[in-house]
Amino acid sequence: MTTPISTTEYVGPQKPFALSKKSPTRPKRLLASLFEFLVHIPSYFGRIGTRCVHLWVPLWRKSWTAETCSCIFAFLSLLGLIATLLAHQDKPLPKWPQLVSINSIVSLFSLLMRAGVGMALAEGISQSKWQWFRKARRLNDMERFDSASRGAWGSIMLLINLSPRRPYWIAALGAFVTVMASLTGFSSQQLVQFSDCLQPDRAAAVGVAKTNSYLRSGRRKGPITNDVFAPMAAGIEIGIIQPVEDRTSVLSHGCTTGNCTFPSTNGASFSSVGISYACEDVTSLVREIPTNETWSDRSTNTSGRAFWANLTSPVGYNSSEIGLLIGASPWLLATGSHDGSGMLSIVQMIFRRSAKDFSYTAINCSIFPSLNTYEVVIKNTVMEEKLLESIPIGYNLVPVVTDKANNEWDIPWKRATSYTLRNGIREVCNRQDTPGSSLGQVASANVDDSPMSPDLADVEKKLWYYPEDCIWSFGLAAASGTGEYLKGIFNKQQLYWNQAGAGNSGSIHLRKLFLESNMTMDTTNEFMGNLTTAMTAVVRAYGLNGSAEHVNGTMWYTTTCMQIRWPWIAFPAIMIGLSAIFLVLVQIESRGVESERLWKSSILATLFCDVENQEMDEAKPVGRHSMEDIAKSTSVSLEMNSQTLKLVAR
């Protein structure tokens, strides 16, 4: 049985086979065409380049095109230098690669400017040489002009030989500018000056403590009394005994460089609850009460009747609470303290300045919660604050105008403001008629006002709701502890004369107040200022719940910045300007010369130039000195025949 090599089975009518669509020759042709195109790309560009060269070379060589372009190039380099300096003026050094500095960039632009004007100067001086020999001139002038076209030294020599008998003024201008060009590097290095400067660090978190409310106190002692908050007690002692000027570490954070600024409006950076004071001379309120006792002073042989001095109370105070009496003879200073209307404490004092001086002075000082507005800056690691405004915070009248006071009895001092400082920007506090999120209730009488009495029968029975950062308050527990501590320091305290009136004895607090008999109204104000400033620092640092709010600022770090000394930019600008003027003058001077006879600095023109001089033909010098001697004694001029290039002896 034989097996067929192939079999065919009928499967019905079929579509004709389309060879042209699936033929592998078409992709090959496309690849071949693409390859051929890529191979010929260099030749295409070569042809284009050749045509451009044929078009531009004649134009470049024609007349003064190249020199004009070089001046324009120098001017553009100057603009580039100015743009670079403007971009980096008063800014830190750019973070460029280590091998590249701003000085190297300035030097590069200086080199480009010098190269630009150098071509115009060299070609212009060289062309002036040929113009100079239109008339009979000494042959050695040829060397002077040629040296001047090469650099600064030759230009200096050309200027030295300038005289009214040798008036090559245009060439002298070119020589002068050439000397200027040699100093471009020096002048450009004077442009940039480096100095320390401050730059902002936007990533740093900087803040100064502030607070809208102070409620901190010690342990509870009674229904409405608390012990003093320990940091407040420490602050009071520090404020009296050893006042601290620098509170940077207490009230600020994050300013690691020691230089920070804070946004402000008209100098005001932020507001905060604080403690303030007010002192007044109340000597006129002292009432003398004579006694049956007498006194005598053997040293002065004087005597008199002793008396008690009783400080009568100002209107509104209960005299029984004052308890301040001072004897004329035994005490030099006595103080009393009590809670007054709207005050944390009232400190009253009567003092005599010496044991033999029986005249006395009485001063009344009130200490109260306040709304303080500050200007702040941190310089050289020290925070500098300026108190711009201090407004008393009056009695909280919410319990008076509504029976829905909730915990308002625990906050006896409250004030709302129509404006507040948010990040240093003064913004309006939008009040609402109804409660809402982040809103607090305030009596109408407490808005931008400080009522000093809780018994206001005619107060408006109206509540407003203000944003929490527009409400300022001081708590009862904090006030009771602070007031009791101040009473312990000042209430019914005396300072005594020592024997024979030499010195005094008593508490350290009164001795700091009396200042060894130097106590005055001014020193009392300073004493109270130090005390309340220290207390305010505690209020701001511990705030509402032991952590204060903060006003955010910007930290500045010291770095190296570039200062541009712009007067020095005049040097390259004048140099380029004079170069352009020189080029224009040279063009005017050679305006009648054919373009092909503008030889400029071409060495070929010198090589092809004949010198028609019998003495030179006979001597045929080969030594330098011989050539110089003959050149000094020979006058030649350029033959005016346009068909020849010859210097003819005259």
TrEMBL record:
InterPro entries under this entry? DUF3176
Q: Transmembrane segments in this chain: where?
A: 69-88, 100-122, 167-186, 566-588
What keywords is this UniProt entry annotated with?
Membrane, Transmembrane, Transmembrane helix
Task: Name one matching Pfam family.
Answer: DUF3176
Superkingdom of origin organism: Eukaryota
User: Is Transmembrane among the key words of this record?
Assistant: yes
Q: What is this protein called?
A: Uncharacterized protein
